[in-house]
Amino acid sequence: MSEQFSRRDFLKLAGVGAATTAVLTGCGPASRYVKREPYMQMPEYNYNGQSTYYATTCRECAAGCGLIVRTSQGRAIKTEGNANNPLNLGKTCARGQATLHGLYNPDRVTDPLKRISRGGASTQVMEWDAAIQAVADALKDNQPEEIAFLMGMAPDHLFDLVSDLAKATGMNAPIRFGALGMFESRATLSKAAENLFGEASLPFFDVGGAQVVFSFGANFLETWLSPVSYTRGFAGLREARTKQRGKFVQFESRMSQTGGKADEWISLRPGSEALVALAIGRLASELRGGPIPRAFSNVDPLDAASKSGVKLERLEHLAEMFAGSKGALAIPGGAALGQSNGLAVAEAVLALNAISDNFGKPGGIYLSALAPNQTEYQRPASAKEMRELVQKMFDGKIKVLFVHGVNPLFELPTSLEFRGAIKYVSQIISFATFPDETAREADYVFPDHHGLESWGYQRVATGSAQPVLSGAQPVVSPYYNTRATADVLIAAAQLAGGTFAEALPFKDEVEFLQSKAASLMNAADGSISAADINTFMAYFQQHGGYWKLSDARGIPNAADVLNRTFSAEEAQFAGEGEFFFIPFVSPTLAEAGANKPWLQELPDPTTTVMWNTWVEMNPETAHELGIENDDVVKVVSEAAELEAPVYVYPAIRPDTIAMPFGQGHTAYGRYAEQRGVNPADLLGQHFNEAGDLAFAGMKVKIEKTGKKKPLSRLESLMGVYGIGLGEE
Amino acid sequence: MATLADLKISEVKLSEEQTGKWGMVIDQDICTGCQACVAACAMENNISFVGEEDSGYGRSMHWIRIERFWEGEYPEVKMTPNQPILCQQCGSAPCEPVCPVFATVHSQAEQLNLQVYNRCVGTRYCANNCPYQVRSFNWRDYERPEPLPNQLNPDVTVRRRGVMEKCTFCIQRIQKAQDQAKGEGREVVDGEFTTACAQACPASAITFGRVDDPESLVSRLTEQNYGVKHLEELGTLPRVTYFKGG
Amino acid sequence: MSEKKNHAEHAHGEEHLREKHLMLDPLPRGQMNEMVMESMQTTSWKFWVVFAILSVIVAYGLFYSWGVMIAEGLGVAGVNRPAYWGIFLVNTVFWIGISHAGTFISAILRVFKAEFRRPFTRAAELMTTFGLVQAGFSIFMHMGRVWLSYWLMPYPNQRMLWPNLHSPLTWDLLAITTYLLSSTMYLFLPLIPDVAMARDRSTGWRKTFYKILALGFRGTEGEWTHLRNAMGIFAWAIIPVMFSVHTIVSWDFAAATRPGWNSTIFGPYFVVGALHSGMGAVVMVLAIVRGTMKNMKYFIRPEHFDAISKLMLIISMAWAYFFFNDYMVQWYGGDKWTKQLMHFQEAGPMGWMWFAMLIFNIAIPWAVLWNARWRATPWIVFIVGLLINVGMWFERYIIIPVSLSINRMPFTWRLYEPGIEIPLGIGTLAFFILLYMAASRLIPLVPVWEVQEGQMAHELKKYGRETVVSVSELE
C-alpha cells in the first residue's frame, strides 16, 4: 500500500476528511450555547464542583414549608424540602420546586424605579439613597393615619416589623391579603371555630389519622391552607400497609383534583352543603340510636335529598359510613364556604364531627398550634375588610399606600374597585419583586429581593402539630440591584426620625430578626437553643427555623356543639343566568405562579391543560348548547364578561361551570402577560356572614362566540375521551 | 460445548437482567396528581419548557407525566388513579437495539437504559419503539432567556435540538452517591439518596432504591403481591412497579 | 412467443405488424442513431420554462426549506409524540418504491428475455437512480442532527465506535447504499455503447462529456463480450439486492414492537407495493417521454403500454393479495391495540385515505386494465399509474404517521399534521423531475443498441399466406 499511497497523500485525504467533518459538525449550533460564565468573585466557601446547601423557607405560598436549596458556584440549582421541618418533612409541592424560575425570572424589577406619570409605562431608574429618602418623606410628610400598608400573607417578619412601626407611630395597622386566603375563606373558618369552640383559630384536620373523611368542598390536596402537609395526611389516610385503608368522600359540584382522589364523589347542588351535612348528621345520629341531638333535629333528610340532588339512599349510605367508622372526620372548605351561607356551611360541617366526637383526638379536629413567637391567631383580611380599605381610599383617608407581597389589582376581584380607589391615593409605593399589575400602577417600585435572596421567617399557621417558625436566609447573593424591604423601611424610619426612628432602632433586617428571635433562645422544648444570640441565629439559619418538640395543637371546646341549632338554609346566588359559577384556584399556578414558565407548562391535574384558562362544562350541557371542546364561549356575570375556550369536563354538574384562577395577567412578565383570563373579574361584590367573598355565589350566562382556540393539553382527546377515533 | 461453569455464568447474567439493580415503586392510590414530581424532574434535569403551541401538539418535554382517565358518566363518574409514567428502565428495552449509532444503550453496571445525548443523531426510532411513549425529543432549541440558565444543574447535560432524551433515574445522583460511598469505603445505603421525583413527592407515593437488595424498602414493597408492571407481556422487564390500590 | 403468434393470426398483414411492433419495424441504424441524438438535442422553450419553474421549486422547497429546518430544528415539521416519524419517511419509502420498478423492469425482463423491454430499460433505470437520490434526501431530512449523519457509517474512529448492527436502520443504510451503487453501475453498463455512439456523433463539450463516459468503447467483439458478461452478472445479482432493499425497509417497521407494524408479511408486502408504485411511475414517465420528446413515438408504442399494463394488473392483484393477507391475520389476531389501530385507520379522521388507497390501488387498475384498448392508450394508463402512485403514497402514510398515532398508551394518542414536510416533499418530486429532464438532454433515453439488437433478431417470415414472426436466439 505504501508504494502507491504515499504518506503525503494520506495526510491530504485525512485533511479533506477532517475539514468535511469540521464543516458538518459546524452545522450544529455551538455546543456551548448555554453560557455559564465563571463566577468572577466566587464566595470563598464555594469550591468548584462542590455544592453548598442552605436551609430556608419557601415563599411561593404562606404555608411556610422548609426548603434546602442546593447552590453551586453561587447559583441556586435545586430546591428540596427540609426534612427536619415538621411542617413538610422534606417534601415540596410543584410551586416550591419552580421557585427558582422566580429567582432567575427574566422579568424581574431590577432597580428601584420612579414612574414618570401614574399608569404610564415609562419609568426612571433611581438610586437606592433617593429611594429611601422617598420612603422617609412619605412617612414623615403625611399624617400617620393617612399611611397604609397592604401586605401579602408572607413573609411574617416584615409584617411584624410594619406592625411594630404602626403600633409605635399610629399608622394604620398593616392589612394582609392574598387570593389564596380569599379562596380558602379563612375568615369564615376562624369565625366558625369561634362560634362553635369559643376560640377564633384555624382548625386543623388530622386527615392522616382518620378512617373516613368527608370533605365538603375542601381542596386540601391543591392549595388549601397547607397543601404539602395535607397531602401527607392524605397519604396517611390511604396507608394500607399499616392499617386499614381509609375512605374518602368528597362533596362538591365540580370535581376538583382533591375530589378526583375520592372513593365516592358526591355531586350536590351548590349551596346545599349545610343541608346535606346536617342531614347526614341526623341520619347518623339515628343509626347511632338515642335521641336526635338538637343540632340535627330541625332538618328533614328527604327535603335535603331533594334540594341537594343527592338521593336519600345515598345519604343513608353515607350516614352509615360516617356513623359506622371509629375515626370519621368532616372538613368544610373550598367553594362551599365561598357562598352567601358559607359560615353556616362551615358550622354545620364542623358540627357533623360531633357525631364521631373526634375533637382533639387523632384523626379529628384540633385548633392549629400557634407559632413559637406568636400570641394569637392572625388571619388575613377578608374581602369585606379589603373593601373597607378601598372605601377609605375612595374617601381620601389614605394618602400613601405601601404594597408588598400582594398584587391586589390581579388578586382582588375588579368589582371591589381597587383600581378606581388608587386614583384617590396620592402616593403608591410598591415593593414588588416582579413587575406585576399593581407595580405598574405604583408611583415608585422599590424591588424587594426574591424570597431565596432574603432573610426572614414565616410562622406556620397550620399543618404541623408542633409550633414552627420557619427561618429564611439568602441562599444566593441578590442577582439584581434590589434591596430588602425591611432594610429600606428601617433606613427610611431612621431618616424620618422621631417616633419612626424610635420604633425601628435597628441597624438592619438581621438585627431586627435577632430581636424577634431572642425570646426563643433559651425557651423550653425548643429544637435549638444557644447561650448567645449569634450562635442561636446561626443554628436558626442552619436548621431552617425553630420549632417546639412537642404537640401544641389546641383541643376545641366542643361540649356544646350538639345542643346548638344550625342554619340549614341554602345559599343565595347573585346574578341572572342558568349556570352556577365555580372559580377555583389553579393547583399548579395558584395566585402568583403564572410568571414561572415551568409552572405554566405543568398540566393541570384535572384537565391536563397548560398555558391557558378554560371553562369547564358538563358534556350533556355542551351537547345541548352545541358546544365542543375548544369552542370559545363568553361567560357573562352581573359584574363582567370574559371569553375562554371550553373544556368539556365529565365531572361537573350540568348546571355548573367552573374556571381556574391564576391566569389573565396584564402585567407580570412575558410568561404571564396576555395569557388566559382572570375569572375573579366575573365576581360581584357579595360577602358571606364572616366577611369572606362569596366567590362561588354567582350565576352566569354562557354565550357562544363562534371562535375556536385549541387548548394545549397533555392528554389525548382521542385516547382519553375517544374523540376523533371514528364512530364505533 | 458448554460446560457446567459456562451455564452458571449465563444463569447469573440472566438473573441480573431479570431483577435489575435500581427500581421504583409508585403507589397510585396515594398519588394526588399534584405535579410536584414533574416540576422537580424538570428542575433537576434541565428540561426545557416548550411553550403553549408545542406543548399542545405533543411536544412537551416532560420526562414524567401523570396520566388519568375517566370511568363512568356523570354523576357516577370517577377519575382513575393517577398514573405517573416515566421511563421504566426496561431490562430488555425495545428502544435499545433499534438505535443505529448506539446512542441509547444499556448500562451493564447500573442496569439502566442510558441515553447518550452527544451520540444521538435524531432518528427517533427508539421513541417509536418505546411501548411506554416516555421519550421526549428536542424538536427545537427551546429558548431559556437569561438569567434562567443560572438555574441549570451542572451535573446534567443541556440538550440541544435534534436529540432524544428521557428519564435517567437521576443517574447523576446515583453516581454521586456511589462515588461518595466508594470514597468512604462502603456500600450505598438504602435511602441515602433518591430521585428528584421521589424526593419531592408530598405523598411519598414514589419509592426508589435497589431492587436487587431484598432488604431495601423498594424490594420489600415490590414483593407485595398487588404490584403491577406495565406492558410486562411484551417481555420488556420494566423496573417500575405500580400499586393500583383502591 | 405464443403471444406474438396470436397477434400474427389476427394480423391484417405485414404493414400492420410493423406499425404495431417496434421490433418488426426496423430503421437504418444511422437514421435511428440520428433520431436519438435529435431527441436529446432538440430543446424547445417550453422545456426551459418548465425547467426554470422546477429549479425555483427545488431551490425553495428542497434547499431553502431544508436549511430552515436544519437551523430551527424538526419543530418546523409536523412530527410529534407519538408520531415521531412522518412524511419524511413516507417519502423515503415511496421513493425507494419508485426506484424499484426501474431495476425490476430492466433486470427481471432482461433475465427473462422479454423483448418488449428493449426501448425503455434506460428510462426505467434512470428512475431507480434518481428515485434513490430523493429517498436519500428524504431520509437525511428526517434526521434530527443531519450534520452528524456520517456517524451511521462504519468508519474507523478514535473511540472505536461502530454503528449498531442490531438496528434495522443500519441494515437499511447498508442495503440502500449497496442498491444505489449497484443500480448506478447497472444503469451505466448498458449506457456505454450508446454514449460511444453519441460521442461519435457530437462535437464540443458534448463530445468531451461522452468521451469520458464511454471509457473508450469502440465496439470490438472483445468489448461486447465483456459488456454482455458484466450485464449478465449484474442483471442476476441486482435482483436479490432489489428484493433485500425493500424487505429491509419493511423491517424498519416489522421489527418494531408497535401494533400494526409487527407483521411477518411486511417484507413481500412492501416489495410488491414498491413494484406497484414503481410500475405506475414507469408508465407515467413513458407517457410523458412519448408525448413530449422528439422521435419518441417511434420507439415507445402502445404495445409497450399494453405490456406494462398487464404487469401492473398482475402486481395490483398481488398487492391486493398481500394486503388482504396482512389485514386478515392482524384482524383475526384480535390484539386489543391492533384492533383499535385498524378501526382508527378505517373510521378515524384519516379513514378517507384508507378507502382511497384501496380504490386507487385495486379497484381502478382492475376496472381499467382488463380492457386491451384502454390499457394500450397512453393517457389512460398515465392516469391509472398516477392514481396507483397516489394510492401507494397513501398506503405508506397510513402505515407510518397514521399508525403511529395509536399505541399502547392511549394518553399520548395524537394526530400528525404535516408542516414543512410539504414543501420539502414537493421539492424532492421537483428535483426528481428536474434530474430526469436534465438527463434527457444528456444521455440517450432509449438504449438504441438494444433496440437495434432486437430488431436484428426479429424477422417476418411467410409460410404460405401466414406471416410469422421469427426471433433468433441472441446470446
Number of helices of chain B: 8
Q: How do the SSEs of chain B run, as a string of H and E? A: HEHHEEEEHEEHEEHHEHEE
Please tell me what the overall shape of chain A is: globular
Give the structural class of chain B: alpha+beta
What distance lies between the first and last C-alpha atoms of chain B, to the nearest angstrom? 53 Å
Main sheet: strands, sense, barrel of chain B = 4 strands, mixed
The 3D shape of chain B can be described as: globular
Query: Hey, roughly how much beta strand do the residues of chain B contain?
Result: 15-25%
Proportion of helical residues of chain B = 25-40%
Word description of this protein:
- The complex is a heterotrimer of chains A (728), B (246) and C (475).
- With 728 residues, chain A is α/β, with parallel strands linked by helices.
- Chain A contains 25 helices and 27 strands.
- In chain A, the strands form seven sheets. Chain A has a seven-stranded mixed beta sheet.
- Chain B is 26% helix and 16% strand.
- In chain B, β6 and β7 (112-115) form a beta hairpin.
- Chain B starts with a helix and ends with a strand.
- Helix content of chain C is 71%, strand content 3%.
- Chain C has helices at 2-10, 14-20, 29-41, 45-72, 87-111, 121-142, 168-200, 204-214, 221-254, 266-292, 296-299, 302-333, 336-347, 351-369, 372-375, 378-404, 421-442, 448-457, and strands spanning 458-463, 466-471.
- In chain C, α14 (351-369) runs antiparallel to α16.
- Chains in contact: A-B, A-C, B-C.
- Chains A and B meet through β3, α2, α3, α8 and α9 of A and α2, α3, β2, β4 and α7 of B.
Q: How are the elements arranged and paired?
A:
The complex is a heterotrimer of chains A (728), B (246) and C (475).
Chain A: H1 7-26, E1 51-57, E2 66-72, E3 75-81, H2 94-97, H3 99-103, E4 113-115, E5 123-125, H4 128-140, E6 147-151, H5 156-169, E7 175-176, H6 179-184, H7 186-197, E8 203-205, E9 212-216, H8 227-238, E10 247-252, H9 257-260, E11 264-267, H10 273-288, H11 294-297, H12 301-308, H13 312-324, E12 328-332, H14 342-356, E13 365-367, H15 383-394, E14 400-404, H16 408-411, H17 418-421, E15 427-430, H18 437-441, E16 444-445, E17 456-459, E18 468-472, H19 485-496, H20 498-503, H21 509-517, H22 533-543, E19 545-547, E20 579-585, H23 597-600, E21 609-610, E22 615-617, H24 619-625, E23 631-636, E24 641-648, E25 656-661, E26 698-708, E27 712-713, H25 717-721
Parallel strand pairs in A: 6-7, 6-14, 9-10, 9-12, 10-11, 14-15, 15-16, 20-25, 22-24
Antiparallel strand pairs in A: 1-2, 2-3, 4-5, 4-16, 8-13, 17-18, 18-19, 20-26, 21-27, 22-25, 23-24, 23-26
Helix pairs in contact in A: 4-19, 7-14, 10-12, 10-13, 10-14
Chain B: H1 4-19, E1 22-27, H2 36-44, H3 51-55, E2 65-67, E3 70-71, E4 78-79, E5 83-85, H4 95-98, E6 104-107, E7 112-115, H5 125-129, E8 136-137, E9 164-165, H6 171-183, H7 196-200, E10 206-210, H8 217-223, E11 227-228, E12 240-243
Parallel strand pairs in B: 1-12
Antiparallel strand pairs in B: 1-10, 2-5, 3-4, 6-7, 8-9, 11-12
Chain C: H1 2-10, H2 14-20, H3 29-41, H4 45-72, H5 87-111, H6 121-142, H7 168-200, H8 204-214, H9 221-254, H10 266-292, H11 296-299, H12 302-333, H13 336-347, H14 351-369, H15 372-375, H16 378-404, H17 421-442, H18 448-457, E1 458-463, E2 466-471
Antiparallel strand pairs in C: 1-2
Helix pairs in contact in C: 4-17, 5-6, 5-9, 5-10, 5-16, 6-7, 6-17, 7-8, 7-9, 9-10, 10-12, 10-16, 12-14, 13-14, 14-16
